[in-house]
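G., the chain you wanted modeled:
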Amino acid sequence: MYSKETTIALQENTQALLKDTPETLASPDSTEQLRQALRFHEYRYYVLSDPLIADGEYDQLFKLLERTEQAHQDWITKDSPTQRVAKELTGNFVTVQHLVPMLSLDNSYNEADLKDFDRKARQLSKLDTIAYCVEPKFDGGSISLIYENDLLVRGATRGNGVAGDDVTTNVKQIRTLPLSARFSDYGLQQVEIRGEVLMNKNSFKKYNDALVEKGLAPLANPRNAAAGTLRIKDPAEVRRRNLEAFVYHISDYTLLPGKEIPEELTTHAGSLKLLWDLGFRSPVKEMRVFDGIDAVVTYCLEFEDKRDDLPYEIDGMVIKVNDFDLQDQLGMTSHHPRWAMAFKFKARQGTSKLLNVDFQVGRTGSITPVAKIEPVYIGGVTVSSISLFNEDVIREKDLMIGDTVLVERAGDVIPYIVKPLAELRTGTETKIAFPQGCPICASQLFKEEGEAAWRCINIECPAQVVERMIHYVSKNALDIKGFGEANIRKFYELGLLKDIPGIYKLNFEAIGKLEGFGAKSIEKLQEAIQQSKQQPLHRLIFALGIRFVGETTAKVLAQKVSHLLDLRNFSQEALQELEDIGPKVAGSIVDFFSNADNINMLQELEDLGIQLNNSSKEMHGGGQLEGVTFLFTGTLPTLKRSEAEEMAEAKGGKILGGVSAKLNYLVVGEDAGSKLDKAKKLNTVKIISEAEFLKMIAVENNGL
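Predicted structure as tokens:
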């Protein structure tokens, strides 16, 4: 979309604009230059995933535009980046008709179906061979977009295929959809485009993690999350969910007076390239054009094998006759076009029977209902237990013991009960009774205002004690190898272990008499326990299982104290001034360090040799790599990725989540993948091997 020369010019202009104020942007022309810069950087960030400026710099430019337009409201344009933001919607969505009906695709599930589709197409067209365009079948919410005179004027849901809901305001929150596009350069006046709104796997996980942390039920899957978000009446919430959109079809267009059909609109592949060049995210990188159906079949099967490697969900491939004239010749039935077919991947849903519901107690006392179902094989895994999250989920879904239920497992997302099949009920089903007291210690349950989860607040509840110890020894906490969940539970049941300090006071003579514990395994366990005493402070903070304190927050806290018990001196207000710590997290930290039992436990741990002091490097970030950013990708020759990240952080380095202009070093191993490709495009990122990284770590002074 942007040539190298244009990119350089826009980047230079960006640096100049970062020095501007609303007073220096003294004309509509200079304000338009600012809008052009923002559109360019939105395209680099949201479409190419390859930003050229820091997030803070983008925010600075955006706020500059907001202030300028506020001072000169007659300078505002309809496609200004500020016009994505809208007030909360009121009333129901208006129903609008699509210019061309959004028909369903005929489905195929095997090679024979695809060959039959090809046979019929060749018979109708009287051709020996047909060229097909193949692309992913995105698993999200379908949308229809209309652009007139280069401006986005309407976005609608699929609805019944003939008409859908007008969701233009929400569509404008999706950063991968430009508010304007130069269709007029191709002689087009009005264009209707089909697309799919998605929530990528990473955004979906982050959003669900946030919901679970608040005690709310997570969203079922990325598809439902995306489709449901389109109809939310709060555009700000739509924006927070970080939706993306792929466009994959131009369904209708009108030409400007005197213009002819452009060459790009003679084939489907050409139309996808046109959309990409105009700044849309279309599947040009994944699409392939093949002569004949055999190569199509091979590509579909290859893509199914790597579907889980994609950052978004797909449920199949779409095969389309590439030539538009031939599409018109083949026509369509009342239900589906004869020139396209969907090849569906193996199902990730199945039905089972809900046999019972167990109620489990977590380390923070939350009561989680867990459905026990008849084992069902879905997506390569046999599923027999499924979390129901909280009582509200049971009630909202109207689940009953004995129900036949629809179960889904998408990618690496946990199994989920989509719904009960109520029409199959026989009358023998029974209601699920949520316990009034803790299922382990019988203590009264409490539900905090604004939370969905019931909680046992008895800190001595055996289930919580065991779960806290399991968390304490886990891999991302103190990583005491050989001391997993099974051993924690066994030692607790036998009376050999009763609390976290007890881990360091184990009777190994008694353990040696247990089946499966020989001299060598005991020696390894003793060594692992001893090594845990020297783990960095942030790991210990995370291991304590303080509610709402994850690994990132633990690192923030560790950098602010010289001794763990210094956190007793932090007020809630002081904690909230730290990075990414809000009122809820701060309150939980204060509660933990105000509890005398917790302080006694920490003092006992210190007496047992656990390191509560902080190294100066962890506290102040004073290593030789302070401020240097790293990202690790691929399989490293000798280190696990987590080990390499810890080594970098121990020297003051910072780990990023993706390739961007903020990244200094990309450390690559085998099968590095897309991160390496992106880094090569950024001249600012230095690509190094594990050996070079280790050499850098070994240097005692900063020679970068």
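The chain has a mean pLDDT of 87.

Shout if anything looks off.
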